[in-house]
Each structure stands twice: as C-alpha cells, then as structure tokens.
Amino acid sequence: MTIRKAMVIARQMGWKRVVFESDCKQVVDMLNKNMGKANLATILLDIRNLEGDFDECCFSFTRRGNNFVSHHVANFATSLIDIAEWKCDFPVWLLDLVHADSVEQLL
C-alpha cells in the first residue's frame, strides 16, 4: 500500500523517472517478477497500472539497515491522514536522521 501511495503522489507531482525502494524483499520480488499472492493481487495490479504513468519506474530492495532514514519516513508516512509536503523547511527530526545517516556512511 505504501508503494502504491508513493506512486500516486509521484504521479501527482509530475515526476517521470522514479525509483521506489522498499525493505520488504518479498514485495519487491513480486513487483519485479510480475507475480503475487491472491490477497495482494488488487494492490499489485494498481501498482502495475500506475507504472505506465512514468517514463522510467523501477522497484528496488534496500535492507533496512542500509537506509535508516527511509525506514523512519515510511513509518511516519503510514500514520499520515493527508499528504505531507516539505518544500522549504524539513522537520528537525528528519534533518537529524539524515545527518546521522550521512555521518555513518562516511565512517
């Protein structure tokens, strides 16, 4: 559901070249191999239909430990009722996570 929602937002923003990362290997594999369980079929079909709205679209598995910030933003996004958009000022908690992640990458 999160990938689907991200795709809808990306389409609304007019983005044409997108990469959607997830730490759920099973979902990424289902998307990349064009297969899925019956209970996910409707969501996967929606994602496949949305995929055609982009010039380039791919789905990538990223281990949670490799993208700490993404994991926290995904958790935050699932609690949202409406779309959150930060054009000028990012939340302090997000800037702190990005900084900590970038420092760790340098070590």
Automatic annotation (TrEMBL):
A Pfam family per the record: RVT_3
Transmembrane segments: none
Matches recorded under InterPro entries: RNase_H-like_dom_plant (IPR044730), RNase_H-like_EbsB-rel (IPR052929), RNaseH_domain (IPR002156), RNaseH_sf (IPR036397)
Coiled-coil annotated spans: none
RNase H type-1 domain sequence ranges: 3-77
Record-linked PANTHER family: BNAC02G40300D PROTEIN (PTHR47074), REVERSE TRANSCRIPTASE-LIKE PROTEIN (PTHR47074:SF11)
Protein name in the entry: RNase H type-1 domain-containing protein
Organism from which the protein derives: Coffea arabica (Arabian coffee)
Gene transcribed to yield this protein: LOC140035743
